[in-house]
Amino acid sequence: MRWLSYFILAYVALGLQTGLASFVQYQGATPNLVLLVGVFIALNAPRDAALLGCFSLGAMQDLVTQHPLGLFALAYGLIGMFVLSTQEIVYREHPLTHFSLGLAGGLMTGAVVGLHGLIHPDQHVPPLMLFTSALLTAVVAPFVLGPLQKLKWMFKFQPKRQRPRAF
Description:
Elements: H1 3-20, H2 33-44, H3 47-64, H4 71-86, H5 95-119, H6 127-150
């Protein structure tokens, strides 16, 4: 994977997430564009690069939010593991795949942030807002992941190694 392309994409996603948050919100919830970049990386990259990419995306998002360091890194690491486990059985270019992985990722992120809110009540986020954010992320996912799938040549993802078949 080309790491320079990855960092440029991460920078653009974090900038759009930060800059557009007040314009594309619905009842206080916003779609999570950085999560969608993490799903894109986990869908296409080899295992080690995908896990490192998702974790570092979360760490970068932790640096620009008011949440404690490591919260989104943990959530995106878990999402990276989940998407990697589905990598071989999903059709990567299908919009329904994008929607379902965006919804699953949004719900997993919401669960991690919600559990953190239970441990630290002063940083509690309402569950309805977390669920609405997951739905908005899932709705936006085909419109973000579709064009990114067309641009995956820029990242030079390594092809998956085929295991030799035993006859």
